[in-house]
Specification:
Number of helices: 7
Number of domains: 3
Oligomer: single chain
Radius of gyration: 20 Å
CATH class of the largest domain: Alpha Beta
Order of helices and strands: EEHEEEEEHEEEEHEHEEHEEHEEEHEE
Shape: globular
Length: 333
Amino acid sequence: MEKLKPYHTFGLDVSADGISFLEKTEDCISFLRHRNPKLLLGCGSDVLFTENFSGQIGIMRTAGVDICEDQECYHVRASAGEIWHKLVASLTYQGIAGLENLALIPGTCGAAPVQNIGAYGREFSDFCEYVEAVDASGSVVRFAPAECAFGYRFSRFKGEWRDRLVITAIGLRLPKRWKPVLDYGPLRSLQTVSDLKPVDLLEHIVEIRRARIPDPAVLGNAGSFFQNPVVDEPCCQRLREEFPDVPAFSLGNGSFKVPAGWLIDRAGLKGFRYHNAGVYDKQALILVNYGGAEPADLMELARHVAGCVYDRFGVRLHPEVRIFGKTGEISLD
């Protein structure tokens, strides 16, 4: 058994049968040919292990970024093992703008398409030109965005293609004409800034996120634990009647997104502690390991949070973090 504590940001004392480091395409193919169960990790920033994993863990370590341009756009190819925030920051400081709203999201570039990462009104799919992946036969396939079936924190890589493909690279298309997206609450104060630059927006978002999200090296966490629930119009109307200050955002199709952090906070759970795990006192959407937490502590805490929110608001919360048991992914229920 090999310790997984250094390879996932909750910092739990769990192990796996074996660990492989994937530094080139051939390593990815070999990993896919391992007998099941197996699990691929980037930074381990979106997983919760509930017990030791009886299988092989692959750690993505491929590297390389290539940039070309045409008259209208920059085209960026990034290897799956590149760190997402380092790519966002590097491009922005080079004058290649567009990804600022997605700054400081933890994880690798290869993980970005899996859950279609998003923040502050932007998602990975807004910029995706292609996703490149390899299968166990060694065939490298380039998928167009429409083939990936991107949705809210979802793609086919999280669904039917899970365990069948390893993402080896992503392609991004970034228009040269920059148009900032400032509709999300904390960014609205920038709408009146006449000379706003991409670097200004990047640094503003980094400051916001650092104030809200604890450093995993200090407090183990996986960022936002729950997805923001999407509710229908009757549910939204009921919430607004009972809680006039509920921040519900219309998705334009008769459904509304409600911030999970607001629901958890209003349920009185911010700062709530269960053994050595707890709801972060600066951002209720984040569950933390205060040190020495057991996997069961975090599972019971997550169930308690989801149960309290449902009892108070009639809204079900679903994990954004992927939860893994002995042989594979499991549900919170």
